[in-house]
Amino acid sequence: MAELLPRRRPDRRRPFLAIYLAAHQWDEQHVGLALTVGGIAGIITQTPAGDLVDRSHSKRGLISAGILTLAICALLMAVHPSWWPVLSAQALIGATSGIFAPAICAISLGLVGRKAFDRRQGRNQTFNSAGNVVAAVSMGLVAYYVSNRAIFFLVGLLAIPALLMLRAIAPGEIDNDTARGANDGQGHAPPGGVMSLFTSRPLVIFLICSVMFHFANAAMLPLLGQMLAKGQGRSSMMFMAACVITTQLVVVALSAWSGRKAGTWGRKPLLLLAFGALPVRGALYTIAHGTIPLVAIQLLDGVAAAIFGVVSVLVVVDLTRGSGRFNLTLGAISTAVGIGAACSQFIAGSVVHHFGYNAGFLFLAGIAAIGFLILLCFMPETSATAPHGKRAA
Length: 393
Fold this sequence. Notes:
The protein is built from 15 helices and no strands. The protein is mostly helical. The chain has one domain: Growth Hormone, Chain: A, CATH 1.20.1250. α6 (about 115-145) runs antiparallel to α11 and α6 runs antiparallel to α13 (about 290-320). The longest helix has 30 residues, at about 235-265.
């Protein structure tokens, strides 16, 4: 049942929040700052959250606390869309969201073991994205037929089935040693400290690549939403829902495939495909006009999201084999994601504010191209079963 729970990834609620705040007369810089606050809170807490998951035997309780916090903060932003309530809510969401990725991946790894985890992670991503499609359709319809504010009440309501599915997981079926990176059947591997992460050169390179990926990716769709929100009223929410749905349908289609191919092709070829989609997407935003072309560009977002969402976790599993610090490392990767996403929202928003939307999209495309080159030139293959590649030490 772990696949039915939310995972930590670039937040698909952000475009809806950006439109919601823009409709309440927030400019690009203030929207970017509000979104950045949540990212900063996540940066501070994500690595300690991973360490907490490594040491905790109550992973379901940690996830429950995060879900409840998200629901309460969504209701707060619905009732008070002003400066301090929104910033406070974003800070709380950021502080607790770092629990999701390590806890859910740990539960999955503890349930199925390392050998079955490639396919399990692909299935997790498939179910996660299918849920995102349902949520995006629901939010778009609720925003169009009720109000933009109503989507935040919907978020609070969706916490109920998430909590019910969480209770369906039997705690006794989770092997807590395997869940934190011990080799299957080898018993108690002590959790490592955070400084031990920096002794692995491939892991450091992957952290840098993750920052570049999410810096390039995180602001693209919110900026598009802000650009289209000017003078469009409620129809802008429907357009944003169409963009998110398109992305998530591609993720649903490709996630299980990514899990299978990661075990046969290796991790690096798939990551290069994901990274290569971003600069093309950013450049296309500057020349495409009209609803259909702009929505079609989101196919590239789906390719990047599906592959990175699956393969990034598999890379961490590879690099932490037998270490007992899988969740700590995954928390550090989530910190890298937060750094890239938080900087992206504010810096790209400032570029747009001073130079226009095309300059903002080209700036993000350039960052994506640099990340692709770093991955191509310096990142080794990490899978032991890759057909042509030396496994990273």
